[in-house]
Write a structure and sequence with these properties.
about 180 residues, alpha+beta, Nuclear Transport Factor 2, Chain: A, 2 domains, 5-stranded mixed β-sheet, elongated
Length: about 180
């Protein structure tokens, strides 16, 4: 990364401006730590979680890593771990997360950004659909669900793409909201 940045600053990019990967090096952006860039990135991030999956390539590094809590399995016995190391895996995770909801979106309620990181405290707003199968719940289709969490996003220091995602949801509150009385691990 540092070599890439030095080469870009040393005019390699200006010499080959029509070739974004001249000599195998992509030019680094100089605006990725600005408030405007962070705000736009967070706006795209929440739009993607609201269902606009076409934004994935625009905002995530190809080898994005997702770190998230374990969730109850579909059978209600045990829990499942999530291991995501690229955009395809992230898209699959988001698709699974949204499955069975008639409404599903995140509202940021507090954000803090510095350098190549963004932290966002959010509220998830959802309306349970008839085909919700993520895990067993006594709730019925049409029931509203809300819970909170915090996402910590780490940007690639050259492109500004999100390279790492750490999701810390308030899982116990979520499980209470879903009317679960016990969870096996």
């Amino acid at each position: 990364m540092k070599i890439n940045s030095i080469l870009c600053k040393a005019t390699l990019c200006s010499l080959f401006s029509s070739f974004p990967t001249a000599a195998g090096f992509a030019c680094c952006r100089d605006d990725i730590t600005t408030k405007e860039f962070h705000d736009a990135l967070l706006h795209k991030y929440t739009a993607m979680w609201a269902g606009n999956l076409s934004l994935i390539d625009d905002i995530f590094h190809p080898n994005v890593e997702l770190h998230v809590d374990r969730f109850p399995s579909r059978t209600g016995k045990g829990s499942t771990a999530t291991h995501v190391t690229n955009r395809t895996g992230l898209k699959d995770f988001i698709t699974r997360s949204r499955a069975g909801w008639d409404e599903y979106y995140f509202q940021p309620i507090r954000t803090v950004a510095a350098e190549h990181t963004i932290a966002a405290r959010w509220i998830m707003h959802g309306i349970l659909g008839a085909d919700f199968k993520t895990f067993p719940t006594p709730l019925k289709a049409g029931d509203p669900v809300t819970y909170n969490g915090t996402d910590f996003l780490v940007q690639d220091d050259c492109t500004g793409h999100i390279r790492e995602v750490y999701i810390a949801s308030d899982s116990i509150s979520y499980f209470h909201t879903m009317n679960l009385t016990e969870i096996t691990v």
